[in-house]
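Dear colleague,

Thank you for sharing your sequence with our group. We've completed the structure prediction you requested, and as agreed, I am returning the results in plain text so they can be pasted directly into your records. Please verify that the sequence below matches your submission; if there's any discrepancy, let me know and we will rerun it promptly.
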Amino acid sequence: MAIYGRHKLIFWFQMVVTWTVAVSVFGFVRHYGWPARMGFSPEYLIEPWFDLSLGVILGTGYFLIERGMNRQIFQRLSFLHWAALKSTLNLLLMLLLIAVAIVLYPYLNRSVAEDVTFREFLFSKLMFLVLGYFILVSLLITLFQRMHQKLGPGILGNMLLGRYHHPREEERIFLFVDMQSSTTIAEQLGHVAFSRLIQDCFADLTDTVVRHRAEIYQYVGDEVILCWKLPNGIRNNNCVAAYFQFVETLASRADYYDRTYGLQPVFKAGGHLGRTTVAEVGVLKRELAYHGDVLNTTARIQGKCNELEERLLISPALAGQLKLSQHYLLREHPPVELAGKRESLTVIGVQRPTPALASGAEVHPVG
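Please find the predicted structure tokens below.
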């Protein structure tokens, strides 16, 4: 919870900084770019504490609106309905800004109270300019956030910087998370209801991705592929903890799934680490692609979950990088043959300890 709280704080701070900069830029351009005077001196618009005050108000308001609009109930709205609702909330925020500006500005420029009436101030050209500027900045922020959501955490920045314009090798951890008995469930529900189920499940994955610093590589049918750079995946056992966090989230919404679909979705997963080549591919619908044997091996490990009656299987290479024995119950399986692989591979089942084990009963670590 502390990790997620930190991300919310960072997001709030980003919004405050963004709007403070936007207000400062507006004041700078308004004062130095246009010689017109509208009954009061606009240089006061670039007073630092005034800009910061408006930045905090706008940033906090925008943060609260974004947090609310990202709730699943609103994400199910059509884009037009979603955009209309968000625009209404942004307009209310703008009215709050105008009210605060009317209160604060006379303290910066006494001539406002004498030379400009409330009505003149409210319907001045400057206020219409402020409204248009606010709408433009809001649209840019929304566009950036939509691109961030479309590409996933950590991807947009790398693409803007051209980090993977040329292929480069990295050590990565991959986790393939797949719905168990998906074919049977799809036949039972029908394709439309099954698609809604997948939407709900992967929406419930969002908090897990943020909390455990994962990157979403791909959604493939009823499967999602998560990945981490090595330091992020190892820290706090993120690559394993993410799976169990996802399981807990689904369990906490068991009543919803039972009521809506008549079942409780179960996911199995396989994890592995290794060298992979990362590169931007495509001209239209450009995206990052990972190439290397590590992906094939991870997929094969995940494919052994049903056979070995495990929900989470990882490779010894990944287990050796993590500190699991104090928090999880590990079970090493004899070497198994993986499709397409010449050599057999030992795989390790990872489970959350039962309450009895967690309270002091023996845990059997690997090795």
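Summary note from our side: Residues 355 and 361 are 9 Å apart (CA to CA).

Kind regards,
the structure core
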